[in-house]
Amino acid sequence: MAPIPGSGLAKGLAVTLRTMTKKSVTDQYPDTQPDLPPRTRGVIGLFEENCTVCMLCARECPDWCIYIDSHKETVPAATPGGRERSRNVLDRFAIDFSLCMYCGICIEVCPFDALFWSPEFEYAETDIRDLTHERDKLREWMWTVPAPPALDPGAEEPKEVAAARKAAEKLAAAQAAEAAPPPTPPAGTESHADEQARAAESPTRPAGDSKQQTDQPRQEGRE
Q1: What whole-number distance in Å separates Cα of residue 119 and Cα of residue 208?
Q2: Binding site as annotated, residues
């Protein structure tokens, strides 16, 4: 059956009329902030205290958009006679977001959890050279990083949490054992200290006397 001429136009106008009578659901940005998913890849936040300047993130970055500068400092010995140690101190940590392709490799390879995804996306600039953000700005974005999702009910407990829990239980048991009073012996029994005290008070006999006393009845019987 051939379509009726103008039926497609009529259907389109009907959809337009239905839409015009409905209330708009468009979020008026920027007055209304969008509800972003938890795993949104906005920008990369830096937790500076965890950074050890291992340079893994800069070496693994496909775009080479991470710039890191550091210097070494000598740490005095913690104990007398110990050796001095050197550590890396972070001087600069910058990311050029005009080159970044948001692959997340730097976050995955960081062994010390110093980089995190933040859903922050309002960092546009009028000059492309201003898209290179230093560590101060990256640190500010750390406060917008969402909390990690909860573990599944059947998931295995992390090793770090299990080790910390066992150490806390062992310490609590030791403290409870020290605070508990000593057990009292049951009625009719003597403690080891009382037995030693009674043995010290009782007179001791020479070994020769005891032997003579045991041998004397045997000699009388022979006579």
Answers
A1: 96
A2: 51, 54, 57, 61, 100, 103, 106, 110
Please report, for residues 64, 65, 94, 117, 214, the alpha-carbon distance to residue 100 in angstroms, rounded to integers and kept in the order given: 8, 6, 12, 13, 103
What does the alpha-carbon distance between residue 25 and residue 5 come to, in Å, rounded to a whole number? Answer: 34
Alpha helices in the chain (DSSP H): 7-21, 56-60, 105-109, 135-140, 159-179, 192-201, 207-222
Identify the residue with better confidence: 92 or 197.
92
Give pLDDT tens digits for 169-210: 999 999 888 888 776 666 555 555 566 666 666 655 555 554
- The number of CA neighbours under 13 Å toward the Cβ of 210 is 4
CB contact set of 105 (below 8 Å; sequence gap of 6+): 57, 60, 61, 62
| pLDDT single digits (tens) 51-86 | 999 999 999 999 999 999 999 998 888 888 888 888
Residue numbering of the annotated binding site for [4Fe-4S] cluster? 51, 54, 57, 61, 100, 103, 106, 110
Q: Which residues contact residue 220 at a Cβ distance below 8 angstroms, ignoring those fewer than 6 apart? A: none
Contact (CB, 8 A) for 53 and 112: no
Phi/psi at 69 (5° precision): -125, 145
Strands 43-46 and 66-75: unpaired
The backbone region for 24, taken as left when phi is positive above 0, alpha when psi lies in -120 to 50, beta otherwise, is beta
